[in-house]
Design goal:
The complex is a heterodimer. Chain A has 11 helices and 20 strands. By secondary structure, chain A is an alpha+beta fold. The mean pLDDT of chain A is 90. The chains are: A alpha+beta, B mainly alpha. The interface between A and B is large, with 43 and 43 residues.
Chain lengths: 359, 575
């Protein structure tokens, strides 16, 4: 076995799953390194949960293999695999105390009572609930229940942690706090983790690597920065973050005609005359300094401003483009540049960021 | 952190324990499927086989069916049965609807009391009502003179049957309609109010359509009950033969098993039809109320509430009168000539007619049904809904679990005789034992128990078993540590349901008891046949009393148990 392989915690080879004629997951290959935090991200029905359940052995794949730590577990029942899991509902046993819940997988291994109790205390301290042991799950808040479920999943020190939308049942504030806590805990324990989520912010802020899925297929797999900045497909570009879509015609050599103007971008590889779409994120622009002198300068008028907390989106009607584009800026920039509805506004594209796809 | 040791244990654990778990999951399903097959499907299949055979067991083609059609008396019973069932349905369902409406949609006082009274008939064998009407309007009836006012010569026959049936079917219809009327969306009524709809318009356009499926369901249940009813026509049917009586006469009276089989099949047709309609309706019902609907809270309306209260009072009085008449009759010295009170009828039954023995048998059988039935039903539902593997068996079990609902008790009883009395059957040793009474009763009442258990199980988080598997805890340990404790109230409800039904049932067991295992409900039949109306009422009253005491005790035990072992329930939301 090569060194590269021994560093691998989980490998999926050609995984496919069909329900009747419906293809839930199609031919997925993926290798996950030891200690890595991987997110399956996609809209509902994209097959991300099915893929997680296949890894857990809760669904049986129609084709392909699951290899964990070099061992083929494709046909093993869930109990014969090595993982801990947290479900969206947490599935805490309501009639058992928090401590009994956490100890659930330990008791079955016939450890000494004192040893089990010590391990439970350790785990509850780990998730920040040292005093919750004697409570029942029903007496705990949603965020606490989530952490109890996490402690229960980690109790047997599994080699793999599976998280199925673990935060989506929580309030926005709690969710944001727990994101950081789970990520820190995962790094500290070094446990390989696969999380399923439909929340792009969650994926971007927590994962080492994001697997963006759509219609049962992997659209792109890469670090948060990669998938955000260098989207591999129109789907990825629109699913993650905001994006302006500009229909254009390729002129060759990285030049494109949009409306009545021409843009020169880094993206290339289209034959002249080909119809394309330019994907422009609100922040892929220069707005400060002498922007009028920069290449790909566009001028227009502010038609609307949406305040979104620390920053805002200004909608600029550009006559040259024949459409409006949303441009983001901080509130300070908004103030300093005198941006207000009806005022003229100019900006230059960051040609190295803008993505172009075939229409 | 002892991470490494745990990881090693985890890797080493699979093997024996996994094998055991897979065996337990599949073994449980195989066991349940075969038990249902042997104790339900095969006996029913035997009826079909036997209907095509002659007296000696040789293939006879359609000879039996031809003879059935050519026997005018038998064909007449079919029409009688349908007339009786349709009449009972069209009386019980509207009454039950208004009753349920009064409880769910008006502001009458003492709703809990009316609800309990409406459910009382469940505690009584159906022929108790027949006995009461004989006291009231029978040959020695107190109000016999009133009969001509209603154009009746005597109470024996269709009129008496419908009156008695109305009593025993009432709670079943009321339960369904109470549930149907509890599902309502207040927002619809608010919208209607905003648009200025009249009360009648709201009733016709919102209430009635909303309860439509409940009404159909209730109608099918009452219809099926009436079609399969044996006790009521036996006691008060007079010269109005129905199919259930014909089966009894053919099999017990004439030992004509093949004709009994044919009549059973005829009886099965309307029952299966009603069942099919009901299950289609049930499937539609599900989508009716959204998760976001706001429950309707009735507001007082003087006129409406007064009318409904009067109605509820009349119906409650009727139900209490029926039970009370039987109880009163059982302590009256010589109805209707000597109305002094006495316990003679009870004493007679216990000392001279050997009825004490029957009563004790009933208690034993009901207790066995309660324990064994609840355990098998709940575990069976769990195995079907929550285990993994052997998936081909699940639909087979689900189908068989629903089958008893469509099979009248008489038909099941015939199937049991034909199957367990067959010389080639290695299980003939069961015939005439207590075991076969328990088995047939559990099977007879399996469907709604199974549904109750499935509903309770579906309210549990569907990932409990997945979590257990990930923690390497076998599912049967989770069943014992989590599922059973959480569903304990349901399990107790199931055993109470089995107990009460075992105390009152007649239809299936009437073919299966032996002199040693005769039952209280059957002894009522015998005493009535012997003209001993007083002792018959005494036994019927005793059954009601026993059922009532057990119901109250079990409710009390349930609440004590919940208080002691289920502290977690009082902690607000449990997900």
């Amino acid at each position: 076995m090569s060194d590269e392989r021994s560093d691998e915690a989980l490998r999926l080879e050609g995984i496919g799953k069909t329900f009747g004629t419906f293809v839930a997951v199609a031919d997925i290959d993926l290798a996950i390194r030891r200690g890595e935090f991987v997110c399956f991200l996609g809209p509902s029905g994209c097959g991300k949960t099915t893929l997680l359940r296949i890894i857990a052995g809760l669904e049986r794949q129609t084709s392909g293999r699951v290899i964990q730590n070099g061992r083929d577990v494709s046909v093993l029942p869930p109990a014969a695999r090595d993982y801990g899991i947290v479900f969206q509902s947490y599935a805490l046993f309501p009639n058992l105390t928090v401590a009994q819940n956490v100890a659930y997988g330990l008791v079955s291994r016939r450890r000494a009572k004192a040893e089990t109790a010590a391990r439970v205390a350790e785990l509850l301290a780990l998730v920040g609930l040292p005093d919750a042991g004697s409570k029942y799950p029903g007496q705990c808040s949603g965020g606490q229940q989530q952490r109890i479920a996490l402690a229960r999943a980690l109790a047997t020190s599994p080699g793999l942690l599976l998280l199925d939308e673990p935060l989506s049942a929580l309030d926005a504030k709690v969710r944001e706090r727990l994101r950081g806590e789970i990520r820190m805990l995962q790094k500290r324990l070094g446990v390989t983790t696969v999380m399923v989520t439909h929340d792009q912010e969650e994926a971007l802020s927590m994962a080492d690597r994001i697997v963006v899925m759509n219609h049962g297929r992997v659209e792109q797999c890469g670090s948060p920065q990669e998938v955000y900045e260098r989207a591999a497909s129109p789907f990825v570009a629109t699913f993650l973050g905001r994006v302006n879509v500009l229909p254009a015609a390729a002129l060759g050599a990285g030049r494109y005609r949009v409306g009545t103007t021409e843009l020169a971008l880094r993206a290339d590889g289209f034959s002249p005359g080909e119809a394309v779409k330019i994907y422009l994120r609100p922040e892929d622009r220069h707005i400060e300094g002498d922007v009028a002198a920069m290449p790909n300068y566009l001028a227009g008028r502010v038609s609307r401003i949406d305040y979104l907390g620390t920053f805002c989106l200004a909608e600029i009607a550009c006559p040259a483009l024949g459409q409006s584009v949303a441009i983001s800026m901080s509130l300070n920039q908004l103030h300093d540049l005198g941006v207000r509805e009806g005022a003229p506004f100019g900006f230059a594209l960051r040609d190295e960021r803008v993505r172009v796809f075939r229409a | 952190m002892p991470a490494t040791t745990a990881a090693v244990t985890a890797a080493a654990a699979p093997g024996a324990s996994q094998w055991r778990e897979a065996l337990a999951a599949r073994g449980g399903l195989v066991l349940l499927a075969s038990a249902l097959f042997v104790f339900l499907t095969l006996p029913l299949a035997m009826i079909l086989v036997r209907s095509f055979q002659d007296k000696d067991g040789a293939f006879a083609g359609l000879v039996n069916f031809v003879r059935y059609v050519q026997t005018p008396a038998l064909a007449q019973s079919t029409w009688n049965t349908l007339t009786f069932a349709l009449l009972a349905t069209s009386i019980v369902v509207p009454l039950a609807f208004v009753f349920a409406y009064a409880i769910q949609r008006s502001c009458i006082p003492l709703k809990g009391l009316w609800r309990s009274i409406a459910l009382l008939p469940i505690l009584a064998p159906s022929l108790l009502a027949a006995l009461s009407f004989i006291y009231l309007f029978g040959n020695q009836g107190l109000f016999k003179a009133l009969l001509p006012w209603f154009g009746l010569k005597e109470i024996y026959g269709l009129a008496g049957m419908v009156l008695a049936m109305a009593f025993s079917a009432f709670p079943h219809a009321v339960m369904i309609l109470l549930a149907a009327l509890s599902l309502s969306d207040a927002r619809l009524y608010e919208a209607a109010d905003a648009m200025g709809a009249t009360r009648l318009r709201k009733f016709l356009t919102i209430t009635l359509p909303g309860a439509k499926y409940g009404l159909i369901s209730a109608a099918m249940v009452v219809f099926t009950m009436a079609v399969s009813e044996f006790g009521v026509p036996k006691v008060i049917g007079g010269n109005y033969p129905v199919l259930a009586i014909d089966i009894y006469k053919q099999v017990i009276g004439q030992q004509n098993f093949q004709m009994g089989a044919v009549v059973s099949l005829v009886l099965l047709v309307p029952a299966v039809l009603a069942f099919a309609i009901d299950s289609v309706v049930q499937r539609r019902q599900k989508a009716l109320v959204g998760a976001r609907s706001v429950p309707y809270a009735p507001r007082p309306a003087r006129g409406r509430d007064a009318v409904l209260l009067a109605f509820v009072l009349v119906v409650s009085a009727y139900l209490l009168l029926v039970i009370g008449m039987a109880a009163y009759g059982s302590v009256v010295k010589f109805w209707p000539y000597n109305l002094s009170l006495t316990l003679d009828h009870y004493r007679y039954g216990f000392e001279e007619a050997g009825v004490e023995h029957a009563y004790r048998n009933s208690l034993v059988m009901a207790t066995l049904c309660a324990m064994f039935g609840a355990a098998v039903t709940f575990a069976g539902a769990y195995w079907v809904e929550k285990t993994r593997g052997a998936d081909a068996l699940r639909p087979v079990i689900r189908f068989q679990a629903m089958l008893p609902m469509a099979v009248p008790g008489m038909v099941l009883g015939i199937g049991y005789i034909l199957f367990f009395n067959h010389p080639a059957n290695p299980l003939t040793f069961l015939y005439g034992t207590m075991a076969i009474l328990v088995l047939s009763t559990v099977v007879h009442f399996y469907s709604s128990s199974h549904l109750t258990a499935v509903t309770a199980l579906k309210q549990l988080d569907s990932e409990f078993e997945s979590v257990s598997a990930s923690l390497k805890v076998p599912f049967y340990r989770t069943f014992r540590r989590v599922t059973v404790p959480v569903c304990l109230p349901t399990v107790i409800d199931l055993s109470r349901y089995y107990f009460v039904n075992a105390m009152t049932t007649i239809s299936a067991v009437v073919f299966l008891y032996s002199p040693k295992t005769t039952l209280a409900s059957i002894s009522i039949l015998h005493m009535d046949e012997a003209g001993a109306l007083g002792p018959a009422s005494a036994m019927a009253t005793l059954i009601v009393g026993t059922s009532a005491v057990v119901t109250v005790l079990s409710l009390f035990a349930e609440s004590m148990l919940l208080r002691r072992t289920q502290a977690w329930r009082r902690t607000g939301s449990n997900r």
